[in-house]
Amino acid sequence: MKTPLKSGTQRFIRDMFLFSTFTGLAYADVHKLSWKDIITEDDGSLWISANRQKSHTEFNVKLLNIPIRIMEYYKGLAPDGKVFPHMSLGQVNVGLKLLQETVVLIGYYPITWQDTLSQAKSAFHKAFRLRVSAGC
pTM score, two decimals? Predict the structure, then answer.
């Protein structure tokens, strides 16, 4: 999250990519996510409790620090109680391709939102292995 980006749009797309990676949500689920889907447990932990857009299957995801920080950054910017502002999937995919040129970890193959989780897992595991082998 420390990579310098050229615009607020790049930041938004990067943040949505990371949010999806940490939560496992598809683009459609991130897009429809509203604050009413965010619940606080008795221990203070935050969870997403909603239904998948495509299958209508109920899911629950505990929110870690990074997704919470991303949500807080965009709080109040989206209409109708949504967590995030809207951007079309086409715009996001074009933005991901531009980000790919900035963030070397992702690799050299074209990426789309649908590829987010598998490629991110691979990239993060590769980065972790490189850091460990370098003694970081």
Answer: 0.74
